[in-house]
Design goal:
343 residues, mainly alpha, globular
């Protein structure tokens, strides 16, 4: 029985909303991280920052969930994957890395270190090594590369169920067991499985499609909301108490592939799944068009947010987001720059 029963021609507006929120949460994560790691833990400010920092960690999983929901809804040939998806992503990535390279090159002139060789190195290093946040782009490219194989798995619900069960076991359950000291002797045995194909972000990628194939009822979103708030509350309280006890910011319980973060991220996606598909807005289209550009651009201006302290960083993050949106709007006025940096 074919499970791909979601529309292939219409764009999911509710999914676009998720991507827009996830983009903003990425900026929140990068904007408040310096306060989260350096501010005194037993203060009201840190507890508020901790809540926003925890919330921001769902951004990356949501991106992968949405990507899988979009890519696996219909079959793509290998040539289509390379031309329409991988090439487009690489084009935007390289264009923005050239911007970073240009900035690095310009910074060499006041130090009297600029030369043809050092400037070329600045550009090459930017493209090859990227920036600290561009790991996401490379991971997404890897998922695109195996999309034709994953699509074959999603053709029947039985094989998709089996894949997700294996992925949960080897991506979530085994690492969690390994982290418990009482099972430390099992570490080598568990590592010997080497089940790399079902590990990592493929869990989110396939799960996004799986959720979209379920005939949706309003009650499912309500249940998802309850699960989200309960799991978020447990994660917040437990991680905060562990941080206060050890006097060191603790985030192991809400890493992207931890059990609780998996529940939080998938339930968040399910909440949006229940939104009216007819939801329309003139704001959504440009914001989703700017998505990758916003993600790749924002570290250029993070230095200004990081000069702020305490809760002011949250205001700075909001200002950062809208400033980047405005810059993207200006870029969109040029057909050439728009093709290179936005599309």
């Amino acid at each position: 029985m074919n499970s791909n029963n979601i529309p292939t021609s219409s764009r999911s507006t509710w999914m676009d909303c998720i991507k827009i929120i996830a983009t903003f949460l990425i900026m929140v994560n990068h904007g408040v991280s310096h306060v989260w790691t350096s501010h005194p833990i037993d203060t009201f400010t840190w507890k508020i920052i901790h809540m926003f920092f925890l919330m921001s960690r769902i951004a990356v999983p949501l991106f992968f969930i949405c990507s899988g929901a979009g890519m696996l809804r219909k079959e793509h040939s290998i040539s289509q994957i390379f031309i329409k998806n991988i090439f487009r992503l690489l084009k935007i990535y390289v264009a923005w890395m050239l911007v970073y390279g240009a900035i690095d090159c310009i910074s060499l002139f006041p130090k009297h270190l600029a030369s043809p060789r050092t400037c070329i190195n600045a550009f090459v290093k930017s493209i090859i090594f990227g920036q600290y946040h561009t790991w996401f782009i490379l991971t997404l490219l890897s998922l695109y590369l195996i999309t034709p194989f994953l699509f074959q798995i999603t053709r029947t619900r039985e094989s998709m169920n089996y894949f997700l069960i294996l992925s949960f076991i080897f991506t979530i359950l085994f690492p969690w067991i390994r982290s418990l000291s009482i099972f430390s002797r099992l570490t080598e045995t568990l590592d010997n499985f080497n089940m790399n194909f079902v590990c990592g972000y493929t869990l989110y990628y396939v799960a996004g499609h799986y959720i979209c194939t379920i005939p949706w009822k309003k009650v499912y979103s309500q249940i998802a909301a309850i699960i989200f708030f309960i799991s978020f509350g447990i994660t917040y309280v437990s991680s905060m108490n562990l941080s206060i006890t050890s006097n060191v910011p603790y985030q192991d319980s809400f890493m992207e592939l931890s059990p609780l973060m998996t529940i939080i991220s998938l339930s968040a996606f399910c909440i949006f799944r229940g939104l009216d598909e007819q939801l329309k807005s003139r704001i959504i289209k440009p914001l989703i068009t700017y998505g990758f550009a916003l993600y790749l651009m924002h570290p250029l201006f993070l230095q200004y947010v990081q000069k702020l302290s305490g809760l002011y960083t949250l205001c700075g993050t909001v200002a950062l987001y809208f400033s980047c949106v405005y810059i993207c709007f200006l870029i969109s006025r040029s057909k050439l720059l728009s093709r290179l940096l936005l599309r």
